[in-house]
Amino acid sequence: MSSSTSCFFGAALFYWWPVLSPSREFPPITYPGQMLYQLVIVIGMTPAFAYITFSDRVLYAVYEYAPRLISGFSPQEDQLLAGSMMKIIGMAVALASFGWSFYRWQAADKRSRTSSFAKATEGQVQRPALNDKYLDKKLRPQADNCLISRVRRLNAAALKMSSPTSAAALFHLFGV
After folding, report:
1. Neighbours of 19 (CB within 10 A)
2. Less Cβ around it within 10 Å: N or C end of the chain?
3. Quick one: pLDDT band at residue 61, thresholds 50, 70, 90?
4. What kind and span of H or E run contains 155?
5. Which residues contact 11 (CB under 8 A, 6 or more apart)?
6. Is 44 helix (H, G, I), strand (E, B) or coil?
7. Element of type H or E holding 176
8. For residue 73, what pLDDT is reported?
């Protein structure tokens, strides 16, 4: 492997390590940090792209005499096209990485909220809310009548009881 290839590989490894690290010793940065990292990289690389793209002279003398893929292109036009492509493709890759980090952050947040909700409601029976806007219109009157009758029975039973603990047990029994 040549030295320039080693430099390119090392730079790419250094660039992507904070986002895609498989190591436990050097784990990837947090998802918001990855998004900020990609934003800083895009902004930080702009001067290099601008220098390559808008230079008055050919920066690499080797390419000045190299054959052109597109006939009629001068070396400076070729350099302008190369710098523009580097910027556009680099931004597209950074934007894709930004979006992927945001997606994984959202998924992780959803998993943590779901697991914390499951822990908080462990052992409780989940009932649909009676005032849920998605509750079927045909079932709403039945649910309202059921609730009203439960409250009436609860009030009647609570009036007959003198002990507050008995009334609390009754409330728990009826689930109100």
Report:
1. 19
2. N
3. confident
4. helix 139-160
5. none
6. helix
7. none
8. 85
Give the integer Cα–Cα distance in Å for 144 and 139.
9
Token pair 């009157």 in the structure block, residue: 141
**For helices 31-53 and 3-20, what crossing angle results, to 10°?**
150
29-42 pLDDT, tens digit per residue, is 999 999 999 999 99
Q: Compute, in degrees rounded to 10, the torsion defined by CA atoms 102, 41, 87, 12.
A: -90
Nearest to 21 by CA among 33, 7, 4: 33
Residue 72 has pLDDT above 60, yes or no: yes
Q: What are phi and psi of 52, to 5 degrees?
A: -65, -45
Is 175:146 a contact under the CB 8 Å cutoff?
A: no
The residue ranges of DSSP E strands in the chain, in sequence order, are none
3-class SS of residue 36: helix
- Model confidence at 133, pLDDT cuts 50, 70, 90, reads low
Is 0.70 topped by the overall pTM?
Answer: no
